[in-house]
Design brief:
Chains A, B: The chain crosses the membrane at residues 20-37. 2 copies of one chain form a homodimer. Chain A is an alpha+beta fold. Chain A contains 11 helices and 21 strands. Chain A has 2 domains: 7-301, BirA Bifunctional Protein, domain 2; 316-417, Rossmann fold. At the A-B interface, strand 1, strand 2, helix 2, strand 3 and strand 4 of A face strand 1, strand 2, helix 2, strand 3 and strand 4 of B.
Chain lengths: 422, 422
């Protein structure tokens, strides 16, 4: 059932993503994910699923169409302003296209008879969200339709909600660490979502629209938006006795909120503590900009001439480049096919290998293209592959190092050094 | 990082799905997928991805918001009628919420310089679709927001397009065969999508809204909608000399269309045959009702008292039921945990095992619940698990058979008999 993935079957190529055919803008702020990027997106989603599962969160899906009456209950139908896309159905009932789902999920949980033993409850989804931005820009960084992971948590008390909050932050830390990107966690603004505590996760990148202040001594960071006037004027961090304030540009990729009872109250979401004694549920909400993480990671890791993906979610891991058409090209082609089959038979590498079949192009040209679009590894079958014991050149394109290896050594090395998500 | 999946952490519960908490209706025709069903959905999506990959199709994602001008180009902005959900953005530009994406994808491909060597091109997505049904009903069978797989194919000639058409039909056949559901393929109506050839895939179920006529002799089936008056009146199949016409109710779960140049023409989608010689591209489109397949399969396989999923996509495969709280319950609990860990360490069974921790309930009651909500297998740790060599009762809940096995035999049997999708 498996088919050999040839280069020609992969239509592959912000500035980098657009120019290399990774995304397609159909209108201002509306982008298609092209196959190359889709693969990275699917991997990122599996990675997020793993981290959510590790904290006992359960995946579900709510509808994009959210009934107006839910949003009217919390007043956000009006307070969200013109970013909320609204439409009527054929019966003139009004809906919005969910930019976030606090109302929708709180309504769901309020329809169940909740006991103390059901808590904590952690529900999340990874779905399309909508925001009618005034000025969409920067590709996937600020688009009008985007993929978001939104987790909603339900706890019996403020203390338990804080525990849950910390466990989600830990999961976010693990996620960004596994991606191999630097991240900055700063105090954030609660904004229209509301609540009592909020943090933002940023990936540092010059394209970032947020200005962050981080104290190198106490480690506490803050978004300029929410800085005290004092701090701004004195250029001093919150702690009076320590201060080594640095600024950084960041792309916001995650946001966590302790919501308190802001949503459970209007939806009358109680749980039974003991018979006849009801308590309001304490809530939290936790977002990750999924499609935004893709582009932010690329902005963060890449150079002008080379796309660098977080290795774990690179669309493919290895590109095999056999010799150019001509003298004895059939020999390296046969070797390349053999190598492809062997690598592809290793469970965690299955589907991660591409055989570059445009052999009318020179090795150098193909290698340059593969470097540009973000392959972590290339295997070149040049003249040394024609020797009695063929040698293969393994190039680590992200670190610019290379090795000449026999086929068994090459397979061993890739098997052990590549981590994938299945 | 793995956590033990306890029953309490899995909020689990058409008639069956709603009553068992598998879906939640927030409004007429708008359903949330609850965690139980979400797991089946994610598996079904992976299965579809596998079959699409096997025919060289590439996954991508288009936006739900589709610019009106694309739909006006083909006249469908008006001809789709009131099922099309329309809305303006803040600049009064009009969009529809895509019920299907022929225009959107043809526009994309028409923006690339297409050479003959790029064909066939096969692009698909699995995304939310929208249809403002006059009378939504039957849960996921006819809802207003649903998951669909839509594949679009681009070929150089009618003959090549037919080859592609047949390869997709083969993939659909494999898909339904792997799901273990009966299916009926009949000639369908091309309707508002248009084109020259169309087939429908149905899962037979009494809840189905389509009446199908199938000739037992020639095997050709037809939807009543598109039957010749002749056939309807004479009750004869298309072939004059063979006839053994039977009728069946079916739920439409797939639809295939050979589109010809209906979309490539208005979008001026040509490819370069040789320098200076241009040809219109021949297109096909192929849908699968993803969320509908979930419910149709359940309708098809289940009884009034038991949900039966296609085994391959059952939310979990095995439920371990230790003895009720009381005499020596700690012994079977420890055994159950050991069994859980061992099964969970088998790569293809990882994440498929649930340990039923509501041990205040009797074994019988828990077993009855697990049977109802569609576990393929239950392992009961009753009195025989307390013997010197513990014996475990493996119940195959779909076939109502059971075996008493030692732990090694039990693990071996499950390892070999359960197929999962990773």
């Amino acid at each position: 059932m498996a088919i050999k993935i040839m280069y020609q079957n992969s239509p592959i190529g912000s500035k980098l993503m657009k120019s290399y055919g990774m995304i397609f803008g159909v209108q201002t702020g509306l982008f298609y994910m092209l196959p190359w990027t889709q693969r990275a997106l699917d991997k990122l989603i599996r990675l997020i699923d793993q981290e959510m599962e590790s904290i006992g969160a359960q995946k579900m899906t709510m509808t994009c169409l959210t009934p107006a009456e839910l949003w009217k209950k919390t007043g956000r139908w009006d307070s969200m302003g013109s970013e909320l896309l609204k439409l009527p159905d054929r019966h003139k009932k009004m809906f919005c296209l969910g930019p976030t789902h606090e109302e929708a999920v709180t309504f769901l949980v309020s329809q169940k008879k909740l006991e103390r033993k059901h808590l904590p409850l952690k529900l999340y989804q990874i779905t399309r969200k909508f925001r009618d931005e005034m000025a969409p820009k920067y590709g996937l960084l600020r688009s009008r339709e985007f993929d978001m992971k939104d987790l909603y948590t339900f706890d019996e008390s403020v203390e338990k909600a804080e525990e849950t909050y910390n466990s989600v932050c830990d999961a976010y830390n693990r996620l960004f660490t596994r991606l191999g990107v630097n991240f900055i966690k700063v105090e954030g603004a609660t904004g229209v979502i509301g609540g009592t505590l909020s943090h933002e996760y940023h990936i540092p990148a010059s394209a970032g629209q947020d200005s962050l202040f981080i104290c190198n001594k106490c480690g506490i960071g803050v978004n300029k938006e929410v800085m005290d006037k004092d701090v701004l004027q004195t250029n001093h961090c919150k702690h009076r006795d320590c201060c080594d304030l640095k600024t950084s540009s960041g792309i916001e990729v995650g946001h966590t909120f302790l919501l308190g009872t802001k949503y459970s109250e209007p939806f009358n979401l109680h749980y039974n503590y003991v018979e006849g004694q009801k308590h309001l549920v304490e809530m939290g909400c936790f977002g990750l900009g999924v499609s935004r993480i893709l582009q932010a990671s690329i902005e963060h890791l890449s150079s002008d001439i080379q796309v660098v993906w977080p290795k774990l979610i690179a669309p493919y891991q290895v590109c095999i480049i056999p010799q150019k058409a001509g003298y004895k090209a059939d020999v390296t082609w046969a070797l390349a096919e053999q190598l492809y089959d062997q690598l592809n038979s290793i469970p965690h590498l299955r589907g991660e290998i591409v055989l570059h079949d445009k052999i009318q192009l020179s090795i150098g040209k193909r290698l340059k293209n593969m470097r540009r679009i973000g392959f972590p590894y290339a295997i070149v079958l040049g003249k040394k592959a024609l020797e009695e014991e063929p040698l293969f050149e393994l190039q680590s394109l992200y670190s610019n190092s290379s090795d000449m290896l026999t086929m068994p050594d090459l397979i061993d090395k890739l098997k052990n050094s590549i981590e994938t998500i299945k």
